[in-house]
Amino acid sequence: MYLFNDDLYRNNGNADLKAGNLYNRLLSRDGDRSPLVRIICYCLLPNHFHLLLEQLKEQGVQKFMHRLSMGYARFFNIRNDRSGRLFEGPFKAELIQNDAQFMHAPRYIHLNALDPTDLDWRNGKIEDWEKAEALLDNYEWSSHRVYKGLKEPLPVISRSSFVDLFPTPDSYTEFLKEWGGRYKYAMDI
Q: pTM for the whole thing?
């Protein structure tokens, strides 16, 4: 995501796929970037992914998504000695219409990492928050960890993207709990 979110990036062919080569190249030019979008949050799952993006350049979302899906498909195909399409169809986008939707998006996106578990987050029935939080904290394919104040290897997410919503990691955690256990909290009142 870091790589393809740069209007200045030009594909360096298979040389970019060699271990360490790309990572070192990216770090050496960190200040020399022209982002297409602001990535507010993400969760990458085995068969799909969720992103909350703010467009920074004209056609930025489309360019970024094209680069991301094509680049990942190419990487996956090379790594798995296969060819052909990887994704079923074009990406689906939903425009955020209001503040309530914008506020809800990060928790919905991050809680998706709990889908393979027995935690019933979609129905607001998480009772074991210790287990849920441990799973989310250890899931490395999500920006949840950044919202919790942990560092990420490459700066995909900027803290300034969400600091107004969640000034502290604890305020973010409470926000997750409020929705994921909403029926439990309603019964306690």
A: 0.83
Q: Residue 8 pLDDT more than 70?
A: yes
> What does the pLDDT read at residue 186?
43
Whether residue 105 sits in one domain with residue 75: no
Query: Which band of pLDDT confidence, cut at 50, 70 and 90, is reported for residue 188?
Result: very low
Q: Is residue 88 part of a domain?
A: no
CA angle 28, 80, 77 (to 5 degrees): 70
Q: Which residue would you say has higher pLDDT here, 37 or 118?
A: 37
Q: Which residues are registered as beta bridge partners of 38?
A: 54
- 165, part of any domain: yes
Q: How far apart are CA 105 and CA 110, in angstroms?
A: 9
- Work out how many domains the chain is built from and give that number: 2
